[in-house]
Amino acid sequence: MTQSLDELLDTAREHLAGWRFEAARQALRSAYTATRTDSTPGAEATAAQIAVLYGEVLRDTNQLTTAINILEPLAADLHTRRGPDDPLTVQAYAVLGAVYHDLGHLDHAQRCYQQVLTSRASPHSPAGRAIRRTAANLAFLHHDQGDHEQALRELTAAHAAIYAYQGAANVDTLHIAAELAALLHAHGHTDQAQQLLHRSLHHAQAGLAGDHPLIALLGTDLRHLTTPASRHRRHTPPPAAPAAQQHRSPWQPANLNRTGA
To answer: pLDDT-derived band of residue 234, with 50, 70 and 90 as boundaries?
Structure first.
């Protein structure tokens, strides 16, 4: 292996920030494979960190079964050995809950989300981002369960928290803004949705690389809202007995025409 584990992690995070998910998956697969035979003292935390991120990118590339097979035993093991409030435990349950959500296992997803949100992990810790994204995921889940008003309140609060902690041009902030705008529009608040998309597109153009998919996503959403035949796009409740399905969330880019994170 020509790159160290830390270098592979940095490479993967860079790819994830640019929504280059297949490239991130390849880097993390190499790192994850290496950790399976690494007996170096103190390597346990690094291995868990890599496994959590690998589970996340497997979700992003629609390999849900593989993600579950990694994340279920990982979360249980971290809970036992490090406790429910350890940042790695919180991160593992956050991603596991999102995978369950994608599969339509809403009860399992909700238990994982509550595990994350009731932990005593600090929002300033390495678990902070997972906590904030899980709050957004819980809003999506409540919408899927039919509680649309609660979902709108929760997603508005989640967006505000991510904005405050991570900044206006952060990828998570912009992605949740796109989802919040879709939800606002779907429930009749089109003017608010347009204003949010205008601001978010400005921040994206100022803060992201010009070819970042979020710029195109926000621009497309804004054009759809400003045309007479605007559409109802995301966030419809799942069928009564859902099969594997997509629930776009802070881990999964919206509107990229992927099937099946």
So the answer is: very low
